Amino acid sequence: MAEPSFEEAMKRIETIVADLEKSDIPLEKALERFEEAVKLAKICHGKLDEAQKRVSKLVGTEDGGFALEPFEESRED
Amino acid sequence: MQTLGGPPGGDRVYSVSEITACIKTSIEDEFPHVWVVGEISNCTLHTSGHAYFTLKDDLAQVSCVFFKTARLGALVPEEGLRVIAQGRISVYERRGQYQLVVNTLLAAGRGELYAAFNELKARLEKEGLFDASRKRALPKFPSRIGLITSPTGAAVRDFIRIARKVYAGVEILVRPVKVQGEGAAEEIVAALADLNRFGEVDCVVLARGGGSIEDLWAFNEEIVARAISTSALPVVSAVGHEVDFTIADFVADVRAATPSAASTIVLADYVDVRTRLDALARRAVKEMRSRIDADLDFIESLGSRYGLRRITDRILSAARDVDEAVGSAQRSIKNAIESRKAALGAVAGKFEALNPLSTLARGYAVCYKGMTAERVTSYNQVSPGDKVRVLFAKGRAICEVERSEKETG
After folding, report:
1. What single DSSP character describes residue B137?
2. ipTM field
3. CATH number of B10-108: 3.40.50.2000, 2.40.50.140, 3.30.1950.10, 3.10.20.600?
């Protein structure tokens, strides 16, 4: 299964916690969901702590397409 | 005959009146209708209704008179106002001075810009371009943001700095443009078109640092307003300071007061997400704890406490650890990220601590010798005929040992 997007992961965690708060789920199911939530929370934190993404520059190419180049911050003012 | 004071060579001698009359004719014929732009100074509004002032620029000045008859309903001259005056040059013979006799007085530069701004604003508003119903919501948790701005200005640095603070994992795609002067509006329009055609960004931020109305003018151009309104990607405008409003601000889906504020706005979902995650983790742990407590009560009610006592302790201390870790995360904003990571680690770690019970729930069982509290962990603790007590997640069974062997299943 592909890694869920941040939004999907957050939504899923919210659903799981809401489920856990309904007391009619059997313990085993509850534990499974709890485990899933912990895993998803780890993914979310991982995404938040992802290495600093580069800043790129959008440039046009000769064939009318686009290319990304590293953007170097410069000072002029 | 020697003429008294006559010049050598017989050149013509003018009287003051004569030369003044010549100058008057020549100047007045040359400048019967001129437009002059300058700044008003030394302004006097005479009780007669006439106004006298000087129009000046950096290098020169010209006296002006604005007669009562011409002034009716016209702009009132004010000290420091930049104006365009239309009139004729007239020579005031008695003083040997020339002056501009003003027919029409218009606010120049800034005045005209404000007028153009208001006209366009009124027109686009009437057209519905500013309607709240047109405003699109920004995407949640954007991963790539298009930034249209000058590559060298303060705006790009501010935006990137704040974005990295909020969520370093966001990718920023700069589409460099000229943000002021000739051709700036056209470059901004082209940049919006490029990003829309490229498509792989979640939203577009149009940013520029503060400046005068002239500096910000590109963002008040109709072509820019139309490009924003037709952009398929949501557009955030972040032009100037808090007090600067441009047409772009009114048309954009979201207006940010400054480029730094734009960072926080587009990444808003990441700002409180750690707090939300922690809150969810706390709720999940609390729920699991109460479920386990309830089941423990049930098991304890079966009268066998010894081995399980330890599990209870572990769970309770785990729960306390989680609470403490989460609590300390809230206490310190400065160390928020680190301590929240720790809190999450605690949640995950404590989950491991809960394992003995989840193991029971998965179908494993604990075996005790007879009705004692001695746990059976080896075949040689029991002999055929011995009674053992087997605890499940729910309930128990009293069994008799048939055989005990070293080999397992």
Report:
1. P
2. 0.71
3. 2.40.50.140
